[in-house]
Fold these 2 entries.
Entry 1:
Amino acid sequence: MFTKKLAELIPVDQVFTVPQIGLAGSSDSDLLDALDSKGIDVFIIIDGNIEFQQQFKNRKFGTIVIRAISNRFLDLQPLETKLFEAIQLVDRGSIIQIP
């Protein structure tokens, strides 16, 4: 999942983690349905398998999958620029992988 510390790197007005919006512990399909209903623009996740397990094509949000050595902040911090670029480029129902 997306970490609160990494969220601080993203220069946009509103960034929330899954626990912050009350969806911690949700199944992947329930989480994605809830994100659709909450009007989320971009979903960022550190989970390389979700894109193969769930349907994203008709979602109301774009998805960014971060592929890193680990989910430790020190491993994710170097991806800050690529992450910001991906946020600007991702479209509804699409997936962008970084790096």
Entry 2:
Amino acid sequence: MRHVTARRVWLLIIIAGYVFTAGLYAVYTPDWQAPDEPAHYNYIRQIAETGQIPVIEMGDWDQAYLDQLKGSAFDPVLLDGLPQIQYEDHQPPLYYLLGAPIYALTHGDLTALRLYSVSLGIGIVLCAFLVGRVIFPARPALAVAMAAFVAFLPQHVAILASVNNDALGWLIADTILLASLIYVRDDRIRPWMLGVMVGVALIIKATAYMMAAVALLAVVLRWRRSFTAPRVWVREAALLLIPALLIGGLWWLRNLDVYGFPDVMGLAAHDAVVVGQPRTAEGIDRLGFSAYVREGLNTTFNSFWGQFGWMGVPLPARYYLAIQIALVAASAGWIIALLLQKRSTANPSDELHSAWLRRDQGLLLGATAALAVAAFLYYNTEFQQFQGRYLYPLLIPLAVILALGVDGWRAALEPLLPSRWRSYWSWITALVFLPMMLFALWLLWRVVVPNL
């Protein structure tokens, strides 16, 4: 009971801290100084003002005008053409449909729409915590640590505090991961529920489509574990796919009518419109393959943790070095945790963590991370998009590794402590991640606001 109360208190503290931090980012980040924010805002505006889902068309992208806006820090004198920035009009509509009433009620207030995205982030933080509870039922501090990492990662906070459909895309991806982990464990989640979630993902954002594969993997893993007839797996897969395809199919049929066959996602129309957007082939020709890859890895790493505005405001180099050192330390702690686990005897209270369940959970987490990386690499085969945020569907799997790494060091040091401290020492894993909130706030006032 004491642990239950403690984890709930910690969760409330983390959610309150996230809302406070992200809310300040939403209010104080200068207008339009977030990636693609004008285009996402204009999608919502068009729905609110016309009652129709927009169509991407020539003229929605103006590279020269965008460069002028970014170069002038969005000088108000130059904003007359801002309503014509509409190159996100091909996106699936759900995020924008939900935002349209807020636009109408607030007369298009940018901060109100940013706070709408912030509210979606609460669900993401909660998903991280619940995934930790599912995977580590006897170790509540790990769930709290995972929630804190996801809540206070500076770049994550900055994007969640902007008008961007990434917020809802990450939320549905994390929800599907959580539901898949529960599905392989017990009967609380049925395959048709997974199918509805996947269908919702199909009308939110293309980067969430990969979670259909994760949900299907969960069905396969459960079928293999139960040793039932193949027809059972076929039935379960059908129960997943039918609602998913019914929901997503409505959007795809609309796109076929608007853009023509086979452009079911409007991506071909988008690619034809965004003339001048940096292309991978051009970057390789300019730098050479090796230099291009080095630049891509460096920029992606930096922007995963913090590179603000339209990628124009990186952190001081010493912070990236500190992050790299912390990652190495966490990796060493993860190895320590594995060694300690091999030496320990089974915990009777942890019966759910049998070999098959740990394997299945690891496969689902690994598949989510691998698919996020694969989607990022695939997108970069055509366009130069070294933005770490495109990898954020793997945030929860990464949070698992980092929490285990910190907890490995905690467990290794615990025998050195007086026995009276050990009951409190179990929460040190969570406490290590809480200063990330202060770091995110410090970056807002010292890096984001002064440089945008």
